[in-house]
Design brief:
By secondary structure, the protein is mostly helical. It is built from four helices and two strands.
Length: 80
């Protein structure tokens, strides 16, 4: 758990604020998730990290510069 916490701290420390200039709605079936896609597009290239993969893979619009990973996949890529 400590190693996971260190990796999470590293990811958060490298984060920066972005301005969302366009709304890409409707895109996802769950309206509550659309803001995440909009932030990701504003920050691309980037990665959306979520356990909620199924909702994001069914998006109407596709943005190849935005990767989609589970937290486990992200942690695995950080330790390789």
């Amino acid at each position: 758990i400590q190693q996971s916490r260190e990796h999470a701290d590293t990811v958060v420390a490298s984060a920066h604020e972005v301005a969302v200039r366009y709304l890409w709605r409707p895109n996802l079936q769950d309206e509550g998730d659309n803001f995440i896609v909009e932030i990701a597009i504003a920050a691309w290239p980037c990665t959306i990290v979520t356990h909620n993969i199924k909702d994001f893979v069914r998006a109407e619009l596709r943005f190849p510069q935005v990767a989609l990973r589970t937290p486990g996949q992200l942690l695995q890529s950080l330790t390789q």
